[in-house]
Every structure is written in structure tokens, then in C-alpha cells.
């Protein structure tokens, strides 16, 4: 029997449908969210975090968002995922703008990774 998705994941999928096929994949006790095989979001503890990079991080800071962090072996580790800004919570147009920024950041991150070689 397939486990039901958390409501925040279901809601994100539904709200992102205008942008294309959205998938959720279980990972590390939460879910990764993907559009076009690009991870743009992360659900953890029933919160949605969006992908950011050097180009977009300041937008999240200016919107008073908080980064996703987890406890590493010796200190907290900050990842490049930030909470969704409150301005986007009830505004679908604004929400999609932030999702598109996250997808773009995810695509840039993929381009920077070295290609995997077979064999």
C-alpha cells in the first residue's frame, strides 16, 4: 500500500501544475519535489523549502525566509533551500514566480555538476 503524501507536498504539486509535470520522491524522512527531473523543492517537517543559489539567495533573505538546516556531526549545516516567502502563501501568481526561481536555481546547479561516467 502506497503511503499518502503529506498535505504540503500534495498542495505544492497541485499549485505547480501550470508549470508542468511535478513529482515527489521520498528522501531522508521528507520529500524532494521535481519539475522536468530538476529538484526545486524539499519538504521536511511539513515545511516546504525552495532551491536557491548565489543568483537567488538574496531574494529569500530579503523576503525574511529561513534556510533549511540539519545537525551535522559537529555543527548545524545550512543547505541551499529556503522557506517559501509569506507573500507567496496566498498569491498563486507570486507563488509560481518563486517556484520558477527555484527550478532555475536547480537547473544551474545541475549544469555545474560533473558528468557521471559509466564503467
Automatic annotation (TrEMBL):
Pfam family name, one: TfoX_N
Recorded superkingdom: Bacteria
Signal peptide bounds: none
Domain called TfoX N-terminal: residue spans: 18-105
The protein, known as: TfoX/Sxy family protein
Species in which this protein is naturally found: Kiloniella laminariae
